[in-house]
């Protein structure tokens, strides 16, 4: 069954591994690893940590062993704070203002007459209003019989030569993938190489 390009990536899109890295991974020998002992370290608390822990323990012990019978009886004395001069002056001003509002004499007001003014629009406003009215009248009284008959032509522009050639190359490439014959492949053998370490690596291994 032939598979489409959208289902599987092409050969050039597949990830590639470097040749030297692939050879090193294939030739890796786990016996070359060295045994390493793991040292577990227990970090002791500092002097400040010990002091804080002792203080916390002593506080909890005092709370647990606290005797309420050792408390002394006390009496609460309520003190009344008198207002200062600024507070007294503010209170007087507010009281006089409220008294003035409550005792206000409306008969002392003078009679006034309200004049309504309707300013006329200027020339620009009148011209804009006329243009708007003319536009509305033109739309409402539009005569469709004065319209001319027109024919709509649909144009389907052909693609350029470059696009046609690109589409042909794409179709040729897809056909080559779908109709690929694996029987035409030649048999090859893979040779695994295990490169020997250099002198520098041997000297570093000896000194390690």
Automatic annotation (TrEMBL):
<dbReference type="GO" id="GO:0003785">
    <property type="term" value="F:actin monomer binding"/>
</dbReference>
<comment type="similarity">
    <text>Belongs to the thymosin beta family.</text>
</comment>
<feature type="region of interest" description="Disordered">
    <location>
        <begin position="185"/>
        <end position="208"/>
    </location>
</feature>
<dbReference type="InterPro" id="IPR001152">
    <property type="entry name" value="Beta-thymosin"/>
</dbReference>
<keyword id="KW-0963">Cytoplasm</keyword>
<protein>
    <recommendedName>
        <fullName>Thymosin beta</fullName>
    </recommendedName>
</protein>
<keyword id="KW-0206">Cytoskeleton</keyword>
<dbReference type="Pfam" id="PF01290">
    <property type="entry name" value="Thymosin"/>
</dbReference>
<dbReference type="GO" id="GO:0007015">
    <property type="term" value="P:actin filament organization"/>
</dbReference>
<dbReference type="GO" id="GO:0005829">
    <property type="term" value="C:cytosol"/>
</dbReference>
<dbReference type="InterPro" id="IPR038386">
    <property type="entry name" value="Beta-thymosin_sf"/>
</dbReference>
<dbReference type="GO" id="GO:0005856">
    <property type="term" value="C:cytoskeleton"/>
</dbReference>
């Amino acid at each position: 069954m032939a598979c489409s390009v959208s289902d599987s990536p092409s050969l050039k899109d597949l990830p590639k591994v470097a040749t030297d890295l692939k050879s090193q991974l294939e030739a890796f020998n786990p016996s070359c690893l060295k045994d390493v002992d793991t040292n577990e370290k227990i970090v002791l608390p500092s002097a400040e940590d010990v002091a804080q822990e002792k203080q916390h323990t002593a506080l909890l012990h005092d709370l647990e062993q606290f005797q309420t019978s050792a408390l002394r009886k006390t009496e609460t004395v309520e003190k009344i704070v008198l207002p200062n001069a600024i507070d007294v002056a503010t209170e007087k001003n507010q009281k006089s203002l409220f008294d003035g509002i409550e005792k206000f004499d409306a008969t002392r007001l003078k009679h006034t007459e309200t004049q309504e003014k309707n300013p006329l629009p200027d020339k620009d406003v009148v011209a804009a209003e006329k243009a708007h009215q003319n536009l509305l009248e033109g739309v409402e009284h539009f005569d469709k019989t004065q319209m001319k008959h027109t024919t709509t032509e649909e144009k389907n522009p052909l693609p350029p030569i470059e696009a046609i050639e690109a589409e042909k190359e794409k179709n040729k490439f897809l056909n080559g993938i779908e109709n690929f014959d694996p029987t035409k492949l030649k048999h090859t053998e893979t040779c695994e190489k295990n490169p020997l370490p250099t002198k520098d690596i041997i000297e570093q291994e000896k000194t390690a």
